[in-house]
Design goal:
With 108 residues, this protein is mostly helical. The chain has two domains: 61 residues, no CATH class; 41 residues, no CATH class. The chain has five helices and two strands. A two-stranded antiparallel ribbon has the order 1-2. It is globular, with a radius of gyration of 16 Å.
Length: 108
Protein backbone atom coordinates (compact mmCIF):
# COMPACT_ATOMS: atom_id res chain seq x y z
CA UNK A 1 0.00 0.00 0.00
CA UNK A 2 1.37 3.39 -0.89
CA UNK A 3 2.10 5.62 2.07
CA UNK A 4 -0.22 8.52 2.79
CA UNK A 5 0.36 10.59 5.93
CA UNK A 6 -2.82 10.67 8.00
CA UNK A 7 -3.90 13.95 9.63
CA UNK A 8 -3.34 13.93 13.40
CA UNK A 9 -0.70 11.18 13.14
CA UNK A 10 2.77 11.89 14.49
CA UNK A 11 4.33 11.87 11.03
CA UNK A 12 1.68 14.20 9.63
CA UNK A 13 2.24 16.64 12.50
CA UNK A 14 6.02 16.45 12.03
CA UNK A 15 5.72 17.48 8.37
CA UNK A 16 2.79 19.86 8.76
CA UNK A 17 4.93 22.96 7.98
CA UNK A 18 6.04 21.27 4.73
CA UNK A 19 2.41 20.48 3.86
CA UNK A 20 1.26 24.01 4.72
CA UNK A 21 3.91 25.55 2.42
CA UNK A 22 2.31 23.65 -0.44
CA UNK A 23 -1.31 24.10 0.66
CA UNK A 24 -1.69 20.36 1.16
CA UNK A 25 -3.12 20.79 4.66
CA UNK A 26 -6.18 22.26 2.89
CA UNK A 27 -6.04 19.87 -0.09
CA UNK A 28 -5.42 16.46 1.49
CA UNK A 29 -5.75 14.43 -1.70
CA UNK A 30 -2.30 15.86 -2.62
CA UNK A 31 -0.82 13.65 0.13
CA UNK A 32 -1.81 10.50 -1.76
CA UNK A 33 1.21 8.20 -2.03
CA UNK A 34 0.66 7.87 -5.78
CA UNK A 35 1.66 11.55 -6.07
CA UNK A 36 4.94 10.97 -4.18
CA UNK A 37 4.45 13.81 -1.66
CA UNK A 38 7.88 13.34 -0.07
CA UNK A 39 9.88 13.17 -3.32
CA UNK A 40 11.20 16.74 -2.93
CA UNK A 41 12.71 16.06 0.51
CA UNK A 42 14.05 12.53 -0.04
CA UNK A 43 16.90 11.25 -2.13
CA UNK A 44 16.02 9.42 -5.27
CA UNK A 45 13.66 9.64 -8.18
CA UNK A 46 10.16 8.52 -9.07
CA UNK A 47 11.73 5.34 -10.47
CA UNK A 48 13.35 4.72 -7.06
CA UNK A 49 9.95 5.06 -5.38
CA UNK A 50 8.42 2.66 -7.89
CA UNK A 51 11.24 0.18 -7.33
CA UNK A 52 10.74 0.42 -3.57
CA UNK A 53 7.03 -0.21 -4.12
CA UNK A 54 7.93 -3.30 -6.17
CA UNK A 55 10.08 -4.55 -3.31
CA UNK A 56 7.26 -4.01 -0.78
CA UNK A 57 4.73 -5.78 -3.00
CA UNK A 58 7.18 -8.67 -3.34
CA UNK A 59 7.74 -8.89 0.41
CA UNK A 60 4.00 -8.73 1.06
CA UNK A 61 2.94 -11.31 -1.51
CA UNK A 62 1.30 -14.25 0.22
CA UNK A 63 2.87 -17.63 -0.35
CA UNK A 64 1.46 -20.57 1.57
CA UNK A 65 -0.96 -18.27 3.39
CA UNK A 66 1.46 -15.57 4.61
CA UNK A 67 3.93 -12.96 3.44
CA UNK A 68 7.64 -12.74 4.17
CA UNK A 69 8.20 -11.83 7.82
CA UNK A 70 11.01 -9.24 7.84
CA UNK A 71 11.07 -9.31 11.64
CA UNK A 72 10.53 -13.06 11.89
CA UNK A 73 12.82 -15.53 13.67
CA UNK A 74 13.99 -17.43 10.57
CA UNK A 75 17.57 -17.40 9.33
CA UNK A 76 16.39 -15.81 6.08
CA UNK A 77 14.71 -12.97 7.98
CA UNK A 78 17.83 -12.50 10.11
CA UNK A 79 20.07 -12.42 7.03
CA UNK A 80 17.79 -9.87 5.36
CA UNK A 81 17.97 -7.62 8.43
CA UNK A 82 21.74 -7.99 8.74
CA UNK A 83 22.17 -6.87 5.13
CA UNK A 84 20.39 -3.62 5.85
CA UNK A 85 23.47 -2.10 7.40
CA UNK A 86 22.72 1.56 6.84
CA UNK A 87 21.50 2.36 10.33
CA UNK A 88 18.33 0.28 10.09
CA UNK A 89 19.50 -1.81 13.05
CA UNK A 90 18.16 0.88 15.41
CA UNK A 91 14.69 0.57 13.89
CA UNK A 92 14.81 -3.20 14.36
CA UNK A 93 15.95 -2.79 17.99
CA UNK A 94 13.10 -0.38 18.74
CA UNK A 95 10.62 -2.66 16.98
CA UNK A 96 11.67 -5.60 19.14
CA UNK A 97 11.67 -3.58 22.36
CA UNK A 98 8.12 -2.36 21.84
CA UNK A 99 6.83 -5.88 21.27
CA UNK A 100 5.14 -4.96 18.00
CA UNK A 101 6.04 -8.14 16.11
CA UNK A 102 2.92 -9.48 14.48
CA UNK A 103 1.89 -12.51 12.54
CA UNK A 104 -1.21 -12.08 10.37
CA UNK A 105 -2.13 -8.94 12.29
CA UNK A 106 -2.06 -10.52 15.78
CA UNK A 107 0.54 -9.88 18.47
CA UNK A 108 2.95 -12.70 19.15
Amino acid sequence: MLFTPVPSSRLYEQYLPYFRERGWDQDLHMLNGKLFPFLAINEGSVEDYIDLQRLMFTLNTHYRSRSFQVFGPSRVSAAFRENLSNGFEEVIRQYRETGMQTVSGARQ
